[in-house]
């Protein structure tokens, strides 16, 4: 607990600065969201916090909560600044998660339930025979019109639905030439065999549902509600369903296989995203630290190399909105000596199939 004197001084500063919020609103934020001078005094920190609150339109129920959040914010800022001094390949920023402890963040924004029994099926891997020398040096499905705008799962453990839908939107665009945003909410409401809505799920169960249910409707027809509903309840309109034929798993812990698949279509991947570095990732080629306890479903949408620095990476689309990372994406280092890949990205990749 802070001392009463400290609290008093702090609340005085906060009250003063509440008046100044309108002025703060228009100021420029650098890419990481703070400058060195912001760290120089308690007044500057309070000012930075107020600017951040205005930018992210945060409001707290009580003054006590605000004081508590300020402590969390300062602690996160300390971490962000420390890492930015130590690490050169990527950087962290004061993003919308800056008032959350790592535990609060973990509880709210992930949602992968990695079932140990998922593998072991005899499904084939159609890109097995692709020759490594035929692979392009880089692929970016965003530039080929196979990736929709970045979405935001909000406080619902529905990452698995967003990962699934990104891969289905991708293969549908590649096969039909029609890039259409599809419905995560339909999966949350209807794909309940193995999946648990906002409490987590798995992409393969969702692919399986889509293949057997006759397809997925558009985002517009069945919009995102950030909560679980009954199947069909959230549907606003009729639209033609987008179908898939089935799905296949990329052989586990085989990065070359993942790249082979990725050269042909966006791929659903699972990673460990619960780390504090991941929480505040703001740009660059991320190379950890992270473990391989898969807790988040995302979509790989390309790969490439950072020519200047010699980093090879996989381009990963997240579902935390466009403010996080590089406009909603993260470049994750590939070619690590670890077979599981950075944050376990090679462990559990899969993709939908669609016949012409
Ligand atoms: C693209 O697909 C969606 C969903 O099936 C459909 O509603 C839309 O009419 C299609 N657009 C074109 C140009 O075919």
TrEMBL record:
One Gene Ontology cellular component annotation held by this UniProt entry: plasma membrane
Organism per entry: Triticum aestivum (Wheat)
Pfam families recorded: Inhibitor_I29 (PF08246), Peptidase_C1 (PF00112)
Domain Peptidase C1A papain C-terminal residues, every copy: 135-353
Protein name: Uncharacterized protein
Family that this chain belongs to: Belongs to the peptidase C1 family.
Signal peptide: 1-24
InterPro entries the UniProt entry points to: Papain-like_cys_pep_sf, Pept_asp_AS, Pept_cys_AS, Pept_his_AS, Peptidase_C1A, Peptidase_C1A_C, Peptidase_C1A_papain-like, Prot_inhib_I29
Entry GO MF terms: cysteine-type endopeptidase activity
Keyword presence, Transcription: no
Domain called Cathepsin propeptide inhibitor: residue spans: 49-105
Location within or outside the cell: Cell membrane; Vacuole
An annotated GO BP: programmed cell death involved in cell development
Principal location: membrane
Alphabetical keyword list: Cell membrane, Disulfide bond, Glycoprotein, Hydrolase, Membrane, Protease, Signal, Vacuole
